[in-house]
Amino acid sequence: MTLLIISPDYASHLFPLATLGTAWREAGERVVVASGPATAEIVAAFGFERVHLQLGRGSNPGTIRAEEQPTGEDDALRGFFDATRRGMVETLTFQAEARSSDLLWNPVEVARAVQLIVAEVQPDHVIVDHLAFSARLALISAGIRHADVVLGHPSALPVGAEVYGFPPEWPLAFAPDTDDLGALRAICESVRDAFTTQWNDALRVLDPAATPSADAFMESGDILLLNYPAELHSAARGELLPAHAFLGSAVRQEAADGEVDAWLATDSDLPIVYVSFGSFLSVRGDVLARVAEALRTLEVRVAVATGATDPSELGPIPDSWLVRAFLPQVTLLERSVLAVSHGGNNSVTEAMTSGVPLLLLPFSTDQFAGAAAVEAAGFGLALAPNTVTADELRVAMAELLALDGGARRSLDRLSSSLRGGAGPKRAYAALRAVPAEL
Predict the structure, then answer these.
(1) CATH no. for 258-418
(2) 2-251+421-432 and 258-418 have identical folds
(3) Residues 300, 224: Cα–Cα separation, whole Å
(4) 393: which residues sit within 8 A by CB, 6+ positions away?
(5) Lowest mean pLDDT: which of 84-98, 123-137, 338-352, 371-385?
(6) Residue 31, SS3?
(7) Is 2 exposed, middle or buried (0-12, 13-18, 19+ CB in 10 A)?
(8) Would you say 432 and 403 are in contact if contact means Cβ atoms under 8 Å apart?
(9) Quick one: which of 352, 371, 257 has its CA closest to 305?
């Protein structure tokens, strides 16, 4: 049996997708990953075969910097970063307007490349990143059975009256202006219609007999795999989803890191707080600096993954802190009592697996809906990154460090259900129940 994984050339996407593939590897089956060169080392570390596939202009082996991107993509990244400084509606508007170049890059050319890869690999099962729209066009137009994986809040696949790019829920600390929200929704609807036209134009070239889509953002594979805990999702919304399985999480195993292991082994009774804004938002050194200011007043040890931010921007760094551009997140979450994050899917699902409450500072896309879900479950708090003060951060941190009672017990139960490679096992079972017909 052979599994083909189709992933964008981004570490944050490939890590969970490749982790799902470990269930096939453990069953003694072949796993092939189609992705770009930036993530080749990640594929090799998992012990999988790799075939070349470029799904977009950009790439990210772990930390993304605008100056390392191709011409055009560099300016797009700088525009995105600038938008996050202006506000949430401005960020979501920027992302909506960039959607076609981000998500449907050279659709016919990419689709034909994907179809050639499928013909060469001859997989029994295919899983593809839900946001790899050009690749999914290839599979749909050729009638290749597949599962697509949502690596984010489930609202990445809109249902009912939802519109892609418009958050269905907001955390309590966010109160966007009604007129601004109306304008944002109108932009998202316009982008949806234009994107669907592009999808249908490419689909017509690939399969002239295909039925056009009414909303390309609502298209999904033969089965939908949601890398997200069902416990954080509305049961009523779940009834609107197509055939699906909630995987919970896809937590990778990390290689030993001598410096981190030595830091963790330090004789100290102080609790550990882990801080990371992920591959993209680590550029927001101004917010990281406020987080560091708040943490310096608490009796904790701190591990900070600074990413694209120069550590000097954080201010004075206590001797007991561990500060590096990149840190093994899974390893550190296992020992942490609190995590401070932008609310990306990997951070949320990995923290839930380790039973770690979250202080979330969402900036963009599905981070708002994800933060609202964590907050509603009692597993964390969300604050507005551009306006929150160090004092407000400190108060929220102290509250979460003292998390107990029913919320603590519920988080521990969720953690127990997600451990032991539950996500890959659930993905393997779901695909085995839907055999491929290539």
Answers:
(1) 3.40.50.2000
(2) yes
(3) 41
(4) 290, 291, 293, 294, 359, 383
(5) 84-98
(6) strand
(7) middle
(8) no
(9) 257
Distances (CA, A) of 164 to 215, 323, 402: 10, 36, 37
**Given the structure tokens 């994800």, which residue do they identify?**
370
Cα distances from 152 to residues 130, 147, 212, 225, in angstroms, run 10, 15, 26, 11
Superfamily of chain region 2-251+421-432: Glycogen Phosphorylase B; (3.40.50.2000)
Could you report the per-residue pLDDT of 225-277, keeping only the tens digit for each?
999 999 999 999 999 999 999 999 999 999 999 999 999 999 999 999 999 99
Rounded Cα distance, 165 and 92, in Å:
7
What CA–CA distance (Å, rounded) separates 359 from 396? 7
Domain boundaries, the chain: 2-251+421-432, 258-418
CA distance 164 to 175: 20
Digit-coded pLDDT (tens) for 287-346: 999 999 999 999 999 999 999 899 999 999 999 999 999 999 999 999 999 999 999 999
Task: Tell me whether residue 259 is exposed, middle or buried, using C-beta atoms within 10 angstroms of its C-beta: 0 to 12, 13 to 18, 19 or more.
Answer: exposed
**Whole-model pTM over 0.70:** yes
| Residues counted in the chain | 438
- The dihedral of CA 384, 385, 390, 396: what is its sign? positive
